[in-house]
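Standup notes, structure subgroup. Blocker cleared on the NAP input:
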Amino acid sequence: MTTPSRIALALAGVGKIARDQHIPSCAEGADFDITVAISRNGRIDGADNFTSYDEFLEKRRDIRAISLCTPPDVRFEMAKKAIASGFDVLMEKPPAATIGEAEALRELAEKAGVVLFATWHSRFANGVEPARQWLDGKTIRKVEITWKEDVRRWHPGQAWIWEAGGFGVFDPGINALSILTAIIPGQTIVEKASLAFPENRQQPIAASLKMKSAEGAPINAEFDWRQEGPQTWDIVVETNSGLLRLAKGGAELYIDGELQVEGPDREYARIYSRFAELIRSRRSDADFQPLRLVADAFLTGERHTVEAFIE
Ligand code: NAP
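Run returned:
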């Protein structure tokens, strides 16, 4: 049962991120009850479970909000149908498979008068908003992004991630780009990219991006999925008055080597608070700049073939 102050939520795609983050964040948070789950293989105990999305749309018109935790290649059709049925929609990152799909969803949501929240979970990491505030008004001289992790550890058995439209190493890399575009003002521009494709896969396992800020500061990013041992999710910003470092995916903030911000992971708790706030104020939040940077990396990228990836 949902109390009047809590919002009944449907969740589609009961996979890794739904189990790791969405379900516990809703259970612990003050705003949402997951009353419906839609997944062909997964279930949520205590929810009304559907295996067919269309059947859910037909039968549960009483629910007004939905969280889409499916991979990006199927997100557009699901979001489009949810918008047409009058749902307020939260979309996991990346918001869609292409910019065209993302922009179309924005327009459809606007026309339908529903809330569209394209989430970027890394933007809700502890250090990101303090980093944005610290950088405000400073001159940025250079940015270095190092995002290196072990794909076997973080994406076990996820075949979709290697298929066309699956994003490959940009699935984590876009998290770095979502932080970058939250803390650096203006549009970031991709100048060139180098993409390493395993000979047996459709998506890159590593990528190097040369970018620049709107004001011309160089921004370099190294994304790699072949890192075993310690994992690295760092952004270092050199400014006219100090060096900022976001470590552990934005969880920790250092200024000139001194730790400023740390603490427990509250990314998804903040995402759901934000979704509730957007629903109550009838506003959308859909910024697609990180997706545009990935698209531009594919547009400008040189392709290199590397050894086959066998999981
Ligand atoms: P996952 O474990 O593969 O789960 C995806 C879910 O979507 C599955 O429950 C699957 O459910 C459903 N699904 C897959 N293909 C589908 C299709 N063709 N039609 C309908 N449903 C389909 O993936 P995940 O790691 O949770 O990632 C999902 C999204 O969350 C991605 O966009 C990813 O970038 C994002 N994300 C993931 C992480 C992470 O750590 N894994 C972190 C942050 C964000 P059924 O097969 O049961 O229908």
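Discussed briefly. Residues 122-267+295-306 form a domain with the Dihydrodipicolinate Reductase; domain 2 fold (CATH 3.30.360.10).
Next: hand off to the docking folks.
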